[in-house]
Amino acid sequence: MDEKVSKFCSWEVFQSRESAVDYFVNQDLPHPWNRAICAAGRVVGSIAVRSLTGCDRCRGELGYALASEYWGRGIATRAVTLAANYAFIEMPHLERLEAVVDVDYPASQRVVEKAGFVREGLLAQGEANRRRHF
Ligand SMILES: CC(C)(COP(=O)(O)OP(=O)(O)OC[C@H]1O[C@@H](n2cnc3c(N)ncnc32)[C@H](O)[C@@H]1OP(=O)(O)O)[C@@H](O)C(=O)NCCC(=O)NCCS
């Protein structure tokens, strides 16, 4: 329910406890690689890697979000670094890990850069035209 977080994400702020629980049960729990980001003994965010299918099975896509009260402490960078390492171990079919971040969101670009991702270009079509590809 944190609009600062959802602003640059593909999902909307949950409007009720029920819709949040429904998302956790039907989207988060069945997800093959989704981890909680924990700090100070509580869940403060999440990070996920989605393996593509078919010919693109060797590619994984990374997504992450952190509660705004925890921003600016290096937590996301640590989570992305750990997730990138574990994803390659736990999904040995992966050969590359990709992150698509908004061109208007330098903090998120900085996170993946600090975690070792290399900027590859700017996606140029439709909704993606505001997004950088690492
Ligand atoms: C993006 C996000 C994960 C960052 O989390 P975080 O824990 O604050 O990130 P970190 O502290 O590890 O690193 C942030 C970096 O961005 C930098 N930064 C922050 N605001 C910035 C700005 N306006 N311009 C440039 N750099 C900025 C910080 O200085 C830091 O870099 P540094 O260590 O070199 O100083 C968090 O803001 C978030 O959850 N946002 C909403 C969801 C989202 O956008 N997810 C990504 C979608 S793929």
UniProtKB/TrEMBL annotation:
The protein's matches in Gene3D superfamilies, at most eight in alphabetical order, are given as: 3.40.630.30
Q: One MF term in GO for this entry?
A: acyltransferase activity, transferring groups other than amino-acyl groups
Renumbered to this chain, the signal peptide range is: none
Q: Source species, please? A: Salvia splendens
Its domain of life reads Eukaryota
Q: Where is the N-acetyltransferase domain?
A: 1-134
- Which protein is depicted? N-acetyltransferase domain-containing protein
InterPro entries, A to Z: Acyl_CoA_acyltransferase, GNAT_dom
Q: Which PANTHER family match?
A: ACYL-COA N-ACYLTRANSFERASES (NAT) SUPERFAMILY PROTEIN, N-ACETYLTRANSFERASE DOMAIN-CONTAINING PROTEIN
